[in-house]
Amino acid sequence: MKKTNCLLLLIFLLTINLIQAQEENKSKFNILAYGGIGYGIVDNDNEPNYNLNSNNGEILLNYNLNQKFGIATGIGLNELTGNGFNSIGNFYHERTMVKIPLIATMSSNISEKIRIVGNFGFYGQTIAKDEYRFLNNTQKDIYEGWNFGAQLGLGFVFNMFDNFNAGINYIGQSDFSKFESNNNVGINDKQKMKNLSSIGIILMIEL
Question: Where is the signal peptide (predicted)?
Answer without folding.
Answer: 1-21
